[in-house]
Fold this sequence. Notes:
Elements: H1 12-27, E1 37-42, E2 45-51, E3 61-62, H2 67-80, H3 104-108, H4 111-116, H5 126-130, H6 137-143, H7 158-172, H8 176-188, E4 194-195, E5 209-211, H9 213-224, E6 228-229, E7 232-233
Antiparallel strand pairs: 1-2, 3-5, 4-5, 6-7
Helix pairs in contact: 2-7, 2-8
Amino acid sequence: PRSTPESQGIASSGILAFIEALETGRKNTHPLDAVQSIMILRHGKVVAEGWWEPYNPEFPHMLFSLSKSFTSSAIGLAVAEGLLSVDDPVLKFFPDDAPENPSANLKAMTVKHLLSMNTGHHEDTTGAVWRGDDDNWPRTFLSLPVEHEPGTWFVYNTAATYMLSAIISQLTGEFLIDYLRPRLFDPLGIENPVWDADPQGRSIGGSGLHITTEGIARFVQMYLQQGEWNGQHILTPEWV
Length: 240
C-alpha cells in the first residue's frame, strides 16, 4: 500500500534532501554503478518511490549480491520442509563430484559454513569456479584446497552461495528459481523473476537474480514481518 511520508512520521523534506544527495553522487559515478531507483517504506507502506531514466517500475534490476538473501531463504524453506539441516556436510550432497581423497577440512565443511562464508578457503573461490575449464561448477568448488578449518576463517565467497543453489537442485531436482517460485516469488507477488545460470542451467545463487524494485521491497518487508506476508508464513520466525 501507498501512503504519504508525513502520515507515517517522515518529513518529506528529509526524503528530498536524500534524493538530492543521490543526484549529486550520480554525477560523479559511472552510469552502470549509479543508483537506479528508490523506494522507501515505513510501517509497511510505500511513502516514496522513483526511478532514474532509463529505469521504470517494471524494470527488472540485476541484484548482484542481494541475490544471496534469496538463496539463503531457499535453504530456510528446505530446512522447514525437512530436506536438510544446516549441519549437514557439503560432501553429502555431491557424492559423484567429490575428490577421490577429500581433505579433513573439506569433510568438515557444512551447509552453515556455506551460509556464513566460513568455508575455510583462504581466498574467494568464485573466479576459479566461474571461470574455470570445467563446466561442472560443484566439482570445481570441491576440488579447491581448503586451507583452514571451516568456521575459523571468513572470506567473502560468492561461489559458496552458488553451492547452496546447487544443493537445492541436488535435493529437489529443480533449479533454485523454480523451487522458489511457488514458495516465495508467487506468494510475494514477484512476477517474472529471472536468474542467471551456470553451464548446467542451475541458478548461480550468489548473484544474477533480476526482479523489480517493488519485488525487493516486498521481500525485505516480509523479513521485517518475521517471515509473514498477507497472513501467510513464508519463512519461519526462527529462520529469520
